[in-house]
Amino acid sequence: MSLCKLCLEREANKKNTHYLTDAIIRTCLNLEGSNEREKGLYFALDNTNPFIDFNFQRLDELTLETTIGRKPTEEEIENAKSIPFSVDYVFCSDCENLFTDIETPFIQNILPHFRQADLSGLKIVSEADVVTIRNFFHIQLYRSAVCEDILAFSPEFKEKLRHSILQKNGDTSIPLSVTYLQTLGGNAIYTENYIGFTDDKNPFIVFMNDFVIQVYENEEAIKFLPFHGLNEQETFVSAININEESFAFKIFNNAERKVFLNTVIVNEKVKKTIQYYRDMFDMFWRKLFGVDAPVLQKERYIQSLINGDDNNLIKYSKQQVFEFTVAYMAKLFNVTK
Question: Where are the domains of the chain?
Answer without folding.
Answer: 17-37+83-252, 268-332
